Amino acid sequence: MKTLDDGSYLVDAERLETLITAMLEKAGVSADDGRIVAGSLVSADARGMNSHGVLRLPVYIRRLQQGGFKANSKGTVVAETAATTLIDGGEGLGSVLTAHAMDIAISKARMTGIAAVGIRNSNHNGENAYYVKQAIDQDMIGIATTNGSPIMPVWGGKTMLTGPLPIAIGVPTDKELPILLDAALGMSSRGKILYYAEKGMSLPDGWLVDAEGRPTNDPNWVKNGGWILPIGGHKGWGLILACEILSGLLTGGKFGQELTNLYDDLDTPQRNGHFVIAINIASFVDVPSFKARMDEYIRIMKASELAPGTEEILMPGEIEFRKEKKQRAEGIVLGKSVVDEVVAVAGQLGIAASAVLEG
Cβ neighbours of residue 289 under 8 Å, at least 6 residues apart? Predict the structure, then answer.
């Protein structure tokens, strides 16, 4: 672990995963499940999505200790067909349950062409890119979404009923980087705005409004009655509604104000719902041919004449793939307050974090 000029830390990815896994084991999580959670958090940080990374670990530990997360719940199959599965998560770790759900969807899609798995009664599951990459690695198209505690109103309202829900879509390629769109359907995610607040940074225009619905650049309003605006106005809100329906209503789970915020009532399960889909490319076209055509399509787009002020055409996920490659090789940049809190929590668990991170 190295201290950078701005006070942040450069941390080896493998050592960071080792530390997180050890901390989770001390909190009662199995080693296998701990590695899934650690992998999802470190993946987010490596990709530059710090709002969904190790920043979340301390509250995960506190929820495990206080009962809001059930350490080793694998979930129970409630209903199943050849192409679908519905899982009750049993208040388990969202990342473990979602990774398991995508594995099931991939397995079923090999037989049925397309498969969907819904999860109810779960908890925070981090960055959805982690799960669609499972499908990409199996030459399938992956889709994942989730619901979450209400931090924004419906379009035109002021009562908090939903959130800037995310959707992720991943598509495999041959030689080009895969397509991986992972986007919160608000102008930003709550986690990213909390990251801005933690860094003392102002928000870009158009992301957030205060408790009266007035535009603000102060990220602290997200904790004080303000809300994140949906992308594309009413159209973005319509997409958010679709994610809520798939994750919360189709699964027979909780939605809206029935859900608990990650940072509140740590002894109470969040009851989040998740929904994943795997599409078997081989059921439609020859896989090598499809991947070669994807490469060709990407190259055609990248060869476009550039608009003024544009240096390069970038595909969804390309920046994150490049950053992940660099940070896994050179170290992941983490804020000082994030590392300090993780080290402190590790100490409370009886783990000398600095020794693990410094090797």
Answer: none
- In tens, the pLDDT along 215-250 reads 999 999 988 999 999 999 999 999 999 999 999 999
The pLDDT tens digits for 246-261 are: 999 999 999 999 999 9
Domain check: are 171 and 224 in the same one? no
Residue 314 pLDDT exceeds 80: yes
What b/e string do you get for 164-183 counting C-beta neighbours within 10 Å, with b at 16 or more? bbbbbbbbbbbebbbbbbbb
151 and 213, same domain (yes or no):
no
Which residues form the domain of 203? Answer: 193-228
Q: Which of 48, 6, 18 has the alpha carbon at shortest distance from 356?
A: 18
Q: Is the residue at 321 inside a domain?
A: no
Question: CA-to-CA distance for 148 and 167, rounded, in angstroms?
Answer: 12
What is the model's pLDDT at position 51?
Answer: 87
Q: Are residues 39 and 124 in the same domain?
A: no
Tokens linked to 279: 């599409």
Q: Is residue 78 part of a domain?
A: yes
Instruction: Give the CATH number of the domain where residue 62 resides.
Output: 1.10.1530.10
Domain total of the chain: 3
Number of H helices, E strands in the chain: 11, 15
Q: In whole angstroms, what is the distance from residue 25 CA to residue 263 CA?
A: 21
Q: 348 and 295 share a domain? A: no
In tens, the pLDDT along 114-158 reads 999 999 999 999 999 999 999 999 999 999 999 999 988 999 888
